[in-house]
Amino acid sequence: MLPLIILSAAAFVAAIAIATVVIGTYNRLVSSRQIAGNGFSQIEVQLKRRYDLIPGLVETVGSYLSHERETLQSVIEARGAAQSGLSNVSANLNDPAVVGSWAASESALGGAIGRLAMVMEAYPELKANETIASLMEELTSTENRIAFARQAYNDTATTFNIRRQSFPTVAFAGVIGFGDDLTLLNFEHQPEIHQAPKIDLTPATVG
C-alpha cells in the first residue's frame, strides 16, 4: 500500500512539474509573439504613412507630366496592391506565402516609384518644385523609419523563433498553439522598400 501511495505522490509531483513547465513556456511564447506583433505594427504605421504620401506626389508630378500617365498610373496601382496586401499580413506573420506575396507587392511599388523618380530627373522644373521636394523628403524619412522598424521586428521575431525551436519547447509547441515560426521580413533583393528614390532635390538656380 505504501509503495502505491509513494508512486501516486511522485506521479502527482511530476504532473505538477510538467504543468509548470508547459504553462511557463506558453506564457513566454505568448509574450514573445505579442512583442513581435507590436514590432510589425510599427512597420504598418510607417507603411501607411508611405501610402498616404504617394497620391500627393503623383498628383503634383502629374500636373507637370500628364503625358507620363502610364508611369503615374503604375505607381497608384502598385500602391493599391501593396496597401491591400498589408491588411492581411499582420494576422498571418507565420505564413510564408502570405508574407511573400505582400513582399512582392512592396517590391513592385518600390520599382514603380523608382521609375517615376527616373522620369522626374529629366525635368528641372520638378526639382525646383517645393511641394515635390517636401514630399520626397518625407518619403525618404519614412523609408528610413520602415527599414529601422523592419530590423526591430526581425529581431523580436527571431527571439520568438529561437524560443519555439528550443528543446524541450519544440516537442510540444504545436500542441499549445505555436506550431509555426514567424516569417522574417527579408528584402535584400527588394531594396526599394527601404531605399528612397534617388533624385536631386536642390532647387535650380537662375543665372
UniProtKB/TrEMBL annotation:
Keywords: Membrane, Transmembrane, Transmembrane helix. It is found in: Membrane. InterPro entries: LemA-like_dom_sf (IPR023353), MamQ_LemA (IPR007156). It holds the Pfam family LemA. GO terms for cellular component: membrane. It is a single-pass membrane protein. Belongs to the LemA family. PANTHER family: PROTEIN LEMA. This is LemA family protein. It comes from Rubripirellula lacrimiformis.
